[in-house]
Amino acid sequence: MSSTNWRFVSFLPFLIWLALPQLVPGQTPPAKPEAKPKPIPDVLVLNDGETLMGHFVNSSGGSLTFHSDMLGDVKTDWAKVKELRAAGSYAVIRKNVHINRHTDEKGIPKGAIAEADRKLTVTPAAPAQAETVPVPDAAHVVDATDLDNAIYHQPGFFHAWKGSVAAGAALVEATQHSRTLTGSFNLVRAIPTENWIDARDRTVVNFHVADGLVSQPGTPNIKTDIVHFDAERDEYFTASRAYLFGQAAFDHNYSQGLALQQTYGGGAGSTVIKKAGETLDLKVSASYVREGFLSSTAAATPNQNLLGTVITENYAKKFGKNKGMTFLQQLSATPTWNNLHASMSAAGASLNIPVYKRLGFSTGANDSFLNNPPVGFRKNSFQFTTGLTYAVQ
């Protein structure tokens, strides 16, 4: 038998095995698993007749957000909605209901929702009965799972931080040699993270550094060395925008002869404005301030222990497409009572503009005022910075 015939005979059992399902009557290959049915899309019908298919996201106050399969996220007023049908499970939170860790969620309507004639009909799973809520009485409509997580889930300390990290640099090589480095981070951890639930606590950490050196042959070097760090912890009262807080801040400013200024204090504050993408806080604290000046100036300006009141205003706003741009502004004034000539204040503002995903561009200005600097130093120290930012989410 030739080698070719031998190879054919050796493969013959394998070929018969492959053809067996076709040769045996009544035997068919196993059926393919059926494809899962596609979920039924939510439907939003506007007063002008336009119909959007997609997914209802949430609503707050007089507006709602709907994710259209064709247009992406669409935000519109309830007054412009003719009809809405959403098959998921949603929670309708009335205006007189405060959501916090002590809330009994049994009284909150949950289920699929339908809106018509300015009324929201919530249809829970059987055997519970449907419930109707007038649209003007609904403060928020959110995913039911998000509500459960907001009430019962407490993220770990290293989670839920938001903010930005920025860095910038400049270099000049000519008759003068100049270098400037700037860096900062501004981080906030607000629990819970949703703005439609009463705040529990908030942790704020800020850091800024500016380091520069200008040198030229035959002339003294000109140095810039400014460092600021502060941290704050807020504890909110139940069902209230008021809170108690403790804070600490540390400042070093070579341009004002300040070796180290330490501030420790505590007081009360209130979140006067709390909206999606906008907050305003006003705070007052009693503080202890320890001022230490550079050793070269200590004879003229000795170190001091001060008691004062810190009055602070913090404002933040997100705007632009998808609220990607962030504006931050801070003001503080510290009158000191045991030395009225040692008062101080600070102001700052920054604008973060997204460029690509989490990367962005930032520009900002900071001004610090020290009423009693050493002789030869100015009272004001002003900085203008630009750089790249990375958003922390």
Report how far the terminal alpha carbons are from each other. Answer: 75 Å
Radius of gyration: 32 Å
Q: How many domains is the backbone divided into?
A: 2
The side-by-side strand order for the widest beta sheet comes to 10-11-12-13-14-15-16-17-18-19-20-21
Instruction: Tell me the CATH topology of the largest domain.
Output: Porin
Briefly note the structural class of the backbone: mainly beta
Q: Strand share of the residues? A: over 45%
Order of helices and strands: HEEEEEEEEEHEEEEEEEEEEEE
- Highest CATH level, the class of the largest domain: Mainly Beta
Helix fraction, binned, reads: under 10%
Number of helices: 2
Largest sheet: 12 strands, antiparallel, barrel
Give the overall shape, derived from the CA principal axes.
Answer: elongated
Low-confidence stretches: none
CATH-level-4 superfamily name of the largest domain: monomeric porin ompg
Beta strands, count: 21
Rounded mean pLDDT is: 86
CATH architecture of the largest domain: Beta Barrel
